[in-house]
Write a structure and sequence with these properties.
homodimer; 139 residues; mainly alpha; Arc Repressor Mutant, subunit A; 3 strands; 8% strand; DNA-binding
Chain lengths: 139, 139
DNA sequence: CTCCTCGTGTTGATGCGTCAACTCGAACGC
DNA sequence: GCGTTCGAGTTGACGCATCAACACGAGGAG
């Protein structure tokens, strides 16, 4: 189910807006951040991605003009990711259709009880993964 | 949860047995097939993969000596995938640890009720995906 | 028989994710 | 001040997945 569902939703996102799911994730997080900007390290925390993955992703998105990298004045070794005008427009256009896609293929098919239970299960599994010495991101 | 859980289980599989999840899938299906052999087209059906993806996967696995390709005598345009001795040994060694990994990180954390519910949800969502003209594999 | 279409399978280009190795500035001990 | 360690970020190589284009045999229509 996971594979099929994710594949379908991702395919619709790509078809409708030309964004990958990774693009979408970064754009959403940045669009909600003050100043549409965020430290790289904070982005890896929010997305649960590795530094490497984020770096590659930002490189690709920078090439497509969705984000910009800036070195913050107060810390030379850090790196901010900043949403561009274009990136903001893209996420604002894409979001409604994507939300609707997830609803249509998943949320609307479940009862409230099922959603509640799924939330509980998710919380438990994630807690177990993170506490059992699981650092997916960095060794 | 999906992403984290899958990442963890896949990482353990790779660490313990040197197999990717795609490798594992193919090996399991083939090991259960009569004669440890199966038509490519049947493999795509079982795995819900595209022809292309399967072909690339078989090429890689063939390079590593896990499977062999054979042209069946009765049909020149078809193609059988056959498990090698090595492939069989690999899957037999890898399977127990993988099953245990899934149990430990997921199954054992859920109650029977939750598992039942998840089964029902999965069935419903997959049915919706497949009936709504969704052919993930081929356009 | 000839041509056409269709089903089966392969290939190449491209994007994505991971791993290991690396750079480099900052903070700390002395 | 000076070296050492540490944390943040980048890079390159590789495996994997997708898409579009192609190859080619089988089966049917005429």
């Amino acid at each position: 189910m996971n594979d099929l569902l994710a594949a379908q939703v991702i395919r619709e996102l790509a078809r409708d807006s030309g964004l990958s799911d990774a693009d979408y994730t970064v754009l959403v997080v940045l669009s909600e951040a003050p100043g549409h900007r965020m430290r790289s390290i904070e982005l890896t925390r929010r997305t649960m991605w590795s530094k490497s993955r984020l770096s590659h992703q930002l490189t690709r998105m920078e090439g497509r003009g969705l984000v910009r990298r800036e070195e913050p004045a107060d810390n030379a070794r850090a790196c901010d990711a900043v949403l561009t005008e274009d990136g903001l427009r893209r996420i604002e256009t894409a979001a409604p259709a994507h939300v609707e896609s997830v609803r249509r293929h998943f949320i609307d098919l479940l009862t409230d009880d099922e959603l509640d239970m799924l939330g509980a299960v998710t919380e438990r599994v994630v807690a177990h993964l993170t506490e059992t010495g699981e650092h997916a991101a960095e060794p």
